[in-house]
Specification:
alpha/beta; Collagenase (Catalytic Domain); three-stranded mixed β-sheet; 11 helices
Length: 255
Amino acid sequence: MTDRITLYRAPTAEADVDAIAGWLRERTEREVRVRDRFLDVHRREGLPERFAAARVLDPYDRETGTDMLGVVRYEERALENPERAGGVLYDGVEIQRALNDALPEGERHLSHLHVALLDRAIATWGDHDNRWHKRVNVLGQPALVSVPGLYEAPAKPEAYYQEKGRHAMLIGDSPPREVLENEIEGDFLIAEDPRTTDALKGYVLQALDYVETGEPFCDDECCRLYNAHRQPELIEAQLREPEFCTEHAATYETG
């Protein structure tokens, strides 16, 4: 049983980790602590090389990574200055393995769950369609929660992509993302969305529920533990009442 949870800040992201920790304490009655950025607290030699090796280079190629000196140097700079990182997709499972190796040996047991909020985009490989898929979280130890993934992984409304294609036909290129987001009706999250913290709460709870039950997600689209594949589903699961399905309300609902 997990009796302690440690959350790690994502310094360049719109996420109030202290608020998430308070919400988690109320619903789990666990000891929940907050630490600074995982990559600062548990810095180990070789992490730049591990990140370089986990880079997704082609959305349809299972092989990842490079040992090019320039890329490794980029990862070194990104570790020191996270605000300079961005635009790179990583194999979430390989990043998880690298961060697990960086944990102190005495903190790797599942009785102490670590949840690292990351300002990096992560993905997992889909054997069913032979391509990489962006993810909000990768469950396990430590659990990874990607703040950019919250905006990028679940698909936006169909009208978003139709409008993007229309602009491309008219001007030969895609317009800035902000233009599309202002033109499309429908509810979806965007970068630095003020709803980010509330939406992330459920994804952090998914990490705990997984190590406690072995079940990765809930099938009920109205539950915080649901794995949304589209932005409207994310909004429904994370930001609208009720918070939980009947089964999970018995475990996690307060009052």
